[in-house]
Each structure stands twice: as C-alpha cells, then as structure tokens.
Amino acid sequence: MKDAAPSMVLLSEYRAPDWCVEHLDLHFALDPAETRVESRIRVRRAERAGPGAALRLHGQDLELLRLEIDGKEPDPDSVTVDAEGLLLAGLPETAVIRIETSLRPEANTALEGLYVSGGSLCTQCEAEGFRRITYFPDRPDVLTRYRVRLEADAARYPVLLANGNRVDAGELPGGRHYAVWEDPFPKPSYLFALVAGDLACVSDRFTTRSGREVALEVYVEHHNRDRCDHALASLKRAMRYDEEAFGREYDLDVYMIVAVDDFNMGAMENKGLNLFNAKYVLASPETATDDDYVHIESVIAHEYFHNWSGNRVTCRDWFQLSLKEGLTVFRDQEFTTDCTLFGVKRIDDVQRLRAFQFPEDAGPLAHPVRPDHYAEINNFYTMTVYEKGAEVIRMLRALIGRDVFRRGLDLYFERFDGQAVTTDDFVDVMAEVSGRDLGLFRRWYTQAGTPRLSAGTRFDAETGVLQVDLAQQTPPTPGQKEKHPLHIPVRLALLDRDGSRLPAQLVDGPEMSTPAMSEWVLELSADKQSFKLHGLRKAPAAVSWLRGFSAPVSLDAGQGTDELAHLVAHDDDAFARWDAAQTLLRRAVIARVEGAIDATLEAALTTAMAALLEDSAVEPVLLAALLELPSHRELMESFERADPVAVDGARRAVEKAVFAPLAERLVARTPDRKRWDDGAFTAEAMGQRRLLNRILALRVAVGAEGAVAEAARQYREASSQTLAMAALAAVNESTDPVRGELLADFERRYRNDPLVLDKWFALEAGSQVGDGFARLERLLEHPGFRWPNPNRVRAVLGPFMAQNHRHFHQADGTGYRRLAGYLEQLDALNPQTAARLAQPLTRWQRLEPNRSAQMRAVLEQLAGKDLSRDLADVVQRGLAR
Ligand code: BES
Ligand code: ZN
What we know:
This protein is of the alpha+beta class. The longest helix has 21 residues, at about 320-340.
C-alpha cells in the first residue's frame, strides 16, 4: 500500500499551536494547466512556546518554487522537507514567510484543493485540502485574516470569487483581469474558498433584523439560471429562521452560493462563499422531486447555519467535528421541522438513523461521536458524527428544557465567538446554564455503540401505582469491550382505552414529587432503574414509549400485538404511532425470515392498516409513512447474521400479505392525481403526493389489478417529477415490459440533463429484474457515464449495493468482486469517494456464513493492493473482527 501503516492521529497528543498566523496574503495566477500561488504569511511565536519551537507548514502534492523568510532565502539546515510538508526551525519571534507553489488543477481528480469542474476553477479545503494549495499550518485552531488576489483570463473566467468582500477589481494586460477579496473574520484554512468561471449570477436581497442589507448571489452555469428560485427562497427562509429560532444574524454584506457538477460531498460552508454539489441547488418542478426540494432546502439551511455553528465558533481539532456538524444537523432538522415537514420530519430522521447510523455503530467502523484516533479524517464525516451527534444535542435539550437550552446556545456563541473549541466546552456551557451535573451525559460523546433499552411496567391496582422498569446495556464495539451506563432521557405517556392520555404523578425519590402530568421524561442513568407513577385509577391500555424518539437507542418494551395496534390507532405522538406500526411489521418480516409465517400478526396488521386507511383524521403525509415497511438495511440489523436476498424476499412477502387484501381501500384513499400534480412546495401538496405515490407503489407491489397500467399513465401524464419518478420507481421491480419502455423514454428525454440522468442510472442499477450484471456493464459503457464525476459513480454503484440484493449479494460472490474492481479503479482517481462507497463491503460479519466468507475474501484481496490512505483505512478497519 502507498502508506503501509497509516499513522494514527491521537486526541491525547493534541497540542496547541506554537505559532499564530497574524495575516495571510494569497495571490493566485489562475490557469487550469498550471496555477501559481504566492503566499505571504505573517507569523508570531505563541507565548507558551519556547524560542526553539519550529513552525510546521503542511503541504501535499505541491511543487515548491520559492521560499523566503523575512526577505531572504533561508539557511537550508533550518528547513526540513518531510511527508507532512515543511518544518521551519530557528525563526525569530515574528517573521514574514513568502512561498510560491505551482499546482495542476486540471489533473486533480481527487476534488480536494484546487480543481476544475465544468470549466470553472474551484476549491474544496475541508478537512485538509488547503495543504494542496500552499504550505500552511492547515489545522482548524490556526485562525487568521485572509486577503486574496485572483488573476485569470477575463474571457474564460469572467467571475472571480473568494471569501468576504470584494475590495478591488480591474483589467490587466493580455486579456487577463483580477479581483481582490478580504474576509474581515479570522478563519481556519478549511473555510477558504475561491471560484473562477463563466457563471450566471442569480441574485436577491435580504435585510437582517438589525437592518444589514445582504446581497444573496447564486452562481450557476448559464443554462441553469432558471433553476435557482428554490435555492434562493430556501436561503431567505433559513436566514430568517436562524434569527427567530436561534437569535443568529448574518455578518457579511454578501452571501454567495456556487453550484458545481463535480463535488465529493453535498455542500461546503466556506465563509461567505458556499460551494454546492449542483444537485443541492438546481430545481424545477419538472426536474426535481419533492424530496429533492426538501433536501435542497435543508442543505442550504445547513451550510447557512454553519456560519455560526462552525465558522464563528469553530473546532479546535478534527476530533471535535461533531461540535459543528452534530449541532448544525440539529439546527437544520429543527428548521425543516418548523418550516416544511412538521410532524413527519422526526420519522424521516429516525428512519435514516436506524438504516445508516445504527448499522455503523454495530459494525467494524463503529466509533464515538467524538473519536479519539483516526488514520484519515475524511473517513470520519460519518452518520455517527453527524446524526448521532445531533441526537446527543437533542437529548441535552430534553434534559435541561427548551428555554435553558436556548440560553445555553446564546452563551456558547457569545463566549466562544472567534475561537476554536471542543465538545466539552459546549457541554460545559449547558451544565453552567442549567446548573445540572452533566458528567455522566458526556459519555454519549466517548462511548460508541447503540444502547439497548429494555422497558416494562407493573401496575398495582390497589395503590394505583404503575412501576416503570428500565434497563440498559450497550454491546461491545471495536476497541471498547467494556461499556458503561449512559444518561438516557425516556419520554413516555400512558394511553387509555379510548386513546386519551392518562394523567399521573411521577414520584422521583422519597420526597421529591412533581405535579400530575400526562407525559414524563424519565432519566435512566444506571444499568437498571425503576420509577413510579402514582394516582392511576386503572391500568393503561398502552404505554407510549420513547416519544419523539427521545434517545438514540434500540428499544425492547416487549409489547404485544394488541397494545401496539392500540398505539397505531390512537397515539398522539406521530413518531411513537409510526414506530408501533414499524415494530409490528418488523416482527412479521422476522417471522418469515425464520421460516414461520405469523398469520395472526399479518392479519392484525391488515386490520390496523385498514382502519388507518378509513380514518380521515390521519394526515396524508403521516398515513404515507405508516404504510411503509422498515427498510431492508434496517431489517438486516434485526439478525445476528442473515441472507440479504431472503430478507428482501420476506419483506416483499409481508408487504403483499398485509396489503393485498386492501387493494380497494387503497384506491379509495388515493388523492386526486390531477389536482396535486403541480409541484407546489407546500406541506399539504407534498403530503398528498407522498400518499398518492406510496399507494401506487403498494398497489404495484401487491400485484393489484391495473396498477402497472396506472403507473404508466401516471408517468406519461405527470407534469411534476415527483409523480413521474414515483411511477418509474413503482415499476422498477416489475417484469412487465412497461418497465423497459418507460425507462427508455426517460433516458431519451433527459440524456442531456445530468441531475435527472443520474436518477435513470440509479433506477437501472438498483433494479433486480433480469440480468443485473449485464445491465451494470451497459451502464458503465453509456456515453454519459464518467468515472471522474462522483454523482454519476454514486448513482450507479450506490443503488447497485443498496437495492440490487439479488446481484450484489449473488451467492457466488460475483457482486462483491465486481464492486471491488470498480473501487480499485475509482480509488486511483478519487480516494474520498472510493472510501465512502467501500463501506457496504465492511458488513460481512452480519451476512450468513457463505456470503460472509466471500465478502471478507474480497476485502482481504483489496487490502493487498496499492490503495489510497482513504480506502486502505476503510478496508483495514473493515477487516477487524
Ligand atoms: N462541512 C461539510 C462538508 C464537508 C464534509 C466537506 C466533509 C469536506 C469534507 C458540510 O457542512 C456538510 O456537512 N455537508 C453535508 C450535507 C449536510 C446537509 C449534512 C454533505 O456534504 O453531505
Ligand atoms: Zn456540515
């Protein structure tokens, strides 16, 4: 391997920087073939550092043309060149360092540092991309002010952008021009960005609550200029929301968003100049689905919210990544809940958490929300750091209360403005404002693994006391054999026969008691604990556990079918109601996988679903969610080891058994297709379309009469992509020739529209019908397929692994071997994307013995190859038993 033993970075070895950078001046002579970068760094030795302290400048794949210290060439003995970059010794207390480097943006397929996308030059610096541009202390705790001069060909690159405010611009001889940008806010290097291109600018304005006028500018390729309205509207909503819900205001005169086609991630929060994967900017009703609209809005909001949670207050080191990402995900989730999706947002988020984060936390790549070692930081932008990190923040709020939490956030932003801090600093502030001991709570940051929560109740009719028994246990994870109890907030309520909530009094300890309420947050902080609810006249008909999913745990409350069905019918907490249905459906699938059809359970499910379909009080969007089965990924977690093809089969069989008898009721409950086919971005319209599409998918899946024909009609008549795509997805597993006709039509129509064409690639790659390997080959030979474009590669390999179980998990291991071959090929171009796509190959421990051995063998083979550090790290950790 290129780096035989990737060296570990350890949290315990963190040391504050010995040198501060007081100012940074960057001059770019931009050209795709060769770009020259001149950097002028003013440094000062930190007081704590001794006079002998050397200055570390990181650098990677750079050509060094010139190095000067205080105007002179340095003594060669004082300069060490190593794998990390440069080490300068013998510097005076303050010095000015001039460095000239040369880069080849055109040859940069890793898409980190300065690269070319669609004819524009652009940068991606998080986490450690700045070191591919110039030698610099490329660590988040070195903050400085930037002045950036960009120079380029005026015809090819009329637009020149960098962070902050443009302070100068002008013409130069030879058809070139320049612009100078100054960012008044000190920032770490990972937030640096520049863009040079021939781009259209779609603009708008926003007035902050204190009266600052902000220019909003979205830069896209000219032919996309009419697809920016939703992005701009989303940005304005996010800016207003951050003021109202979090008291945070924008701080520069301009906020720019640039869309690029080639991007490793979703988007990046560079100060004042966000870079976005085009798929999270561009939208029109014909080319984007409701889900796309919602994602765009939430990514725009997420990157905007980083301006405070990440940029104004940043991370001390990369172990603290969740400080900005977990908090910002929490903030964007709140935004989407309050502005767009309301009750169903929590359900979507829990679905994601269970399908992606729980498996990560149970597998070989498990790590704490705040990791304490890494070989490659790019591999730690994970579901755990992001989604579990957001859950930890949510639990904090549940424990200290909304108002105190908000005061804590205000204090956090005020106290640490302009600083690089830690997750401990964050919790300290919350402890300070709440006066609570959060010592045990901090373990959520350091202990990996999903806790298993067992819950039960015992009612004493004589005393009217309900005893609630809770117990927790976390399974071991790599490097953490011993687990300790966590501080877990368990929100619950008791439902009566008629579905109303029963009031009771929580008696907490011998004398402490609280007034009678109808919902409680029990705080479990030991292995086992009991609580008492007093004043009940009768036993509850059902216990509504973990309302709003108050903690990221897997719950076993041992509830029977009747109790769960009661919750499905009546629970007023949308999440708990949906979760009761999920538990029943999961049990039915597990029974089938284990070879024992539970006909009684399936019949009870049919009855419960029939009642929901009849109940006009259930909102369409919630009904759509209630009609969904747990995902394949989530179901795989229910077994120690499983055959993924069998799980898929059982899941489909349960779907059929439960819903086939409801074909007529499904039709009766279908929203009026013509009426809602308008692409309107409102909760009501999106909810109706979600239900419409879920019912169509169900009808096709159960083989209902005329369903395939109806899907074809819906596809042909659709004016919004939400309906067109759903129709295609509904027939994607059908053997009816209509599938091929519709997909071919879709390809013809959108051949030249990359974002839409990605969806065609995804449908084809994910379909299990016919010869999936031949189809995969054809996809890779399609004129639109490009290995250097991450969206396109992900569109093919992602669904092939996630949905095409029959081929990816073909028992002879063909699917695993094919994938490994593609990954090796991709790794040579784009290590980050290869490492991400390799993750499904680390799930071998959860497969039945034959496939497990096949997958492991493929990983072992990969481990023997010459891989990037990114991919090697995933492969090596993935092999650990
Ligand atoms: N800071 C990240 C982008 C990033 C991650 C850049 C890793 C480089 C390496 C950004 O704020 C982010 O989190 N983006 C997410 C989308 C977001 C809505 C969760 C992404 O890109 O997936
Ligand atoms: Zn982020």
